[in-house]
Each structure stands twice: as C-alpha cells, then as structure tokens.
C-alpha cells in the first residue's frame, strides 16, 4: 500500500494513472496501430535473453510485460510486477489470472523511488513505456535510477521499451504531429482525461534522443547500454547492464 510518507513520491503523475485504467489497454492498441504488442514481445525476449531467475516488471501498469514474460519464460523464473496505481494492478491481477497453467505473478503496490525489495534481488528488470514517466521533467528521476540499480544484481539487465526521437527530420516532425493531434485527441475522447493524453503527447514529443538517454543511463551507474530502434525510431528498446 502507498502510505502517506510516500505522498511526495506520487507527484507529478499520480492522479493521471489512477484515473485512466478502464480504457488504458484499448487506447494503447489504437494509438500504436497494435504495434505495442510486438514491441512488448521483443522487450520480453530481451528481458529473458540472459537467462534470469528473478524478473521485475517495474511500473507494470496493467501487467502486459509481466504476462508476456510469463508466457515466454521457463517455469522456474519468478515474475514480479510493481506499480503505484491500484486500479492498474487490479486489471493486471485479473489478466494474469487467465494465464494458461495459472502461472503465478506477484503484484505489489509501491513507488519506484522506494521499492519494497532488498538490494540486488532481481537479475532482470523491464520497463515498458513507463521510463519516460520516471525521468521526463520528474524531480525524482535520480531516485528512480538509483533504486533500479539498487534492486538489480551486478551483471543484471534493465530493459527499457520507450518512445524515442527518429533521426530523420521529416519522420520526426510527422511523429510529433501525430502525437499532438491524433493521440492526444483520441486518448482524451476515449478516456475523458485530457491532461493524461496531453502529457503523453508532449512528453513523447520532447523526450530524450537515443544518445541522450544512453548517456543518462551511463551517468547513473550502468556499465553499458545498447539500443534497438523500432518503427523508424519512434520507439526503441534499450538494454542497460549493471
């Protein structure tokens, strides 16, 4: 449970992601033209590439990355999800309950700046289109990065699937227009939450370029970072090693 002592760690996005869960999955599918499923599957494979035993889906939302990892992983891999939005976690728990074989996924409510896990307890951490929320104009960005490193084992991997900035100026301009017009309007119409999808459009349009995000991860303490662009660079998968 998120207690009062963590109230300051809820800002600036706490209300946004507790208000939109009923339409969250549908909107993600529509605004990415269903490509988010393929991107998440690629991220899940990257999370499992080094043969982890303990995996954390950080800022798991409605649980799609954790569930995709559960589908692909061997039975001995322990899978955990963490998010501060209880409505999101309720949906994640319901979806995970429909997994074939009733594969167990543990979901916890908590904040990324103060995770309820011991040091070095995960050898793989995945963050699916939520790392931007942890780092874009977020006063707790440093704490979030430090906590990720704290709970990750030495030699472990943090896999980040996130929006990015295409190198090509024309594609980048079209992408920004698409986010600020179609995505913002559609998300607002379906969810009724204008601030949430205005934030999504603006943060995605202004977020780091791949080289900038790589430098941020290296400066925070990761030893190496690789990047794989997706769909002309509008998104990408980063793999950062502790």
- Ends: how far apart? 29 Å
Q: What's the overall geometry?
A: globular
Provide a count of the helices: 10
- Total number of β-strand segments? 7
Examine the coordinates and then state which fold CATH places here, giving the name of the CATH topology.
Rossmann fold
Radius of gyration over all CA atoms, rounded = 17 Å
CATH class: Alpha Beta
Instruction: Tally the structural domains.
Output: 1
Helix content: 40-55%
Q: What is the helix/strand order?
A: HHHEHEHEEHHEHHHEE
Report the biggest beta sheet as strand number plus sense, adding barrel if it closes: 7 strands, mixed
Q: Structural class of the secondary elements? A: alpha/beta
Strand order of the largest sheet: 3-2-1-4-5-7-6
| Mean pLDDT over the residues | 88
CATH level-four homologous superfamily name = Vaccinia Virus protein VP39
The low-confidence parts are 1-12
How large a portion of the residues is in β-strands, by DSSP E? 15-25%
Corresponding CATH architecture: 3-Layer(aba) Sandwich
What does this structure look like?
This protein has a single domain (4-241), classed as 3-Layer(aba) Sandwich (Rossmann fold). It is globular, with a radius of gyration of 17 Å. The chain has ten helices and seven strands. Strands 3-2-1-4-5-7-6 form a seven-stranded mixed sheet, with helices on both faces. The chain has helices at residues 16-19, 21-31, 35-48, 64-72, 86-96, 131-135, 141-151, 169-191, 194-206, 210-220; strands at 54-58, 78-83, 105-109, 122-128, 152-163, 224-230, 235-241. It has 242 residues and is α/β, with parallel strands linked by helices.
